[in-house]
TrEMBL record:
It comes from the Bacteria. SUPFAM superfamilies: Periplasmic binding protein-like II. This is Bug family tripartite tricarboxylate transporter substrate binding protein. The keyword Secreted does not apply. CDD domains: PBP2_Bug_TTT (cd07012). The lineage of its organism: Bacteria, Bacillati, Bacillota, Bacilli, Bacillales. Belongs to the UPF0065 (bug) family. Keywords: Signal.
Length: 335
């Protein structure tokens, strides 16, 4: 009887050790430690060159490669059209692909809500949020509009006399951020004349005199302001943003327009990406955000750090969707 007890105890002990080992194995796998990319990674940009998605993807790829955080090359590929819908459709056809990433921001909600895509944030794998940016409204340096109130006054008199260009589709971010701002100032949002330049040509159209106003992000304004080609009428931050050049950009709030709009940007993968790959990329991006090289990219584009890991980012996306749904319903742009 004693021998049986000893034998049973040994078996139970061995079982416990094996279970612990298996648990360690699972923990290691879930952390992404056992998975690494085995080929170049597609970084799909669902827009043209030069916009916020493009700069986010290329800046992240550059730092991840140069700092040797990821052991493979990134291939950034632009797939513009439909405010992101063309790129998302391509990514949706790559379900379970562990070697594909793409940048994301509020259009992942705007576009499905306005009826231009059947795909939304729940159709992809959230990896991490990286940055916060703000909207900026630009005019040529020789424009008669000196500030946002000058523009608002002109639009109140005849909203269709002012052409506003953005690099996103109608009903998507560059359109919606501008509509939200001028609506807060008393302009009839439904009469705003918006022109879409989805090939990333919004700045070119502004400088060429084809439109009066360019709705974009703070990061896209900096170089042209430095060159003396454009003037920033207003930005949607609650307070002035610190940094070279951008600290001169006036907020809407200081001009009496009660509007704040945050342009968050992050990274997602295809639907059904393996948990190991998703965790690997989350860890790699977290490491990237802690480098001086990434901080230089933040300064270069006027971005603010806005880290959220996968779980927190996923919860944020659901909450943000509800807010945007409400906004678009209020101004009559939800389909």
């Amino acid at each position: 009887m004693k021998k049986k007890s000893i034998l049973l105890g040994a078996v139970l002990a061995l079982s416990s050790i094996m279970a612990a080992c298996n648990g360690d194995e699972k923990a290691s796998s879930a952390s992404g430690d056992d998975w690494k990319p085995t080929k170049p990674i597609e970084f799909i940009v669902p827009a043209g060159a030069g916009g916020g998605w493009d700069t986010t993807a290329r800046a992240a790829a550059k730092v991840l490669e140069e700092q040797k955080i990821v052991n493979q090359r990134f291939a950034a590929v632009n797939k513009p059209g439909g405010g992101g819908a063309i790129g998302w459709a391509y990514i949706d056809g790559k379900k379970k692909d562990d070697h594909l990433l793409f940048p994301t921001s509020p259009p992942i909600m705007f576009v499905p809500l306005n009826g231009q895509s059947d795909l939304g944030h729940k159709d992809f794998t959230p990896i991490a949020a990286l940055t916060a940016d703000y909207a900026a409204y630009l005019v040529k340096s020789d424009s008669p509009f000196q500030n946002m109130n000058d523009l608002v006054d002109a639009m109140k008199k005849d909203p269709k006399s002012i052409s506003v260009v953005g690099d996103s589709a109608p009903g998507s971010m560059d359109h919606m951020q501008f509509v939200k701002s001028v609506s807060a100032a008393g302009v009839d949002a439904k009469n705003v004349k918006y022109v879409s330049a989805q090939d990333g040509g919004g700045m070119t159209m502004l400088l060429g005199g084809q439109v009066e106003v360019y709705s974009t992000g703070v990061g896209e304004a900096v170089e042209q302001v430095r060159a003396g080609n454009v003037r920033v009428l207003g930005v949607t931050s609650a307070e002035r943003i610190e940094g070279d050049v951008i600290s001169d950009f006036p907020t809407l709030k200081e001009q009496g327009i009660d509007d704040v709009f945050v342009v968050w940007r992050g990274i997602m993968g295809p639907k059904d990406m393996s948990p190991e790959a998703a965790k690997y990329y989350e860890n790699a991006l977290k490491e990237m955000t802690e480098t001086d090289a990434w901080k230089e990219e933040l300064d270069r584009y006027g971005w603010l750090p806005n880290w959220m890991g996968s779980e927190e980012f996923s919860k944020f996306l659901d909450e943000e969707y509800d807010k945007i749904d409400k906004l678009m319903t209020e101004i009559g742009l939800k389909k």
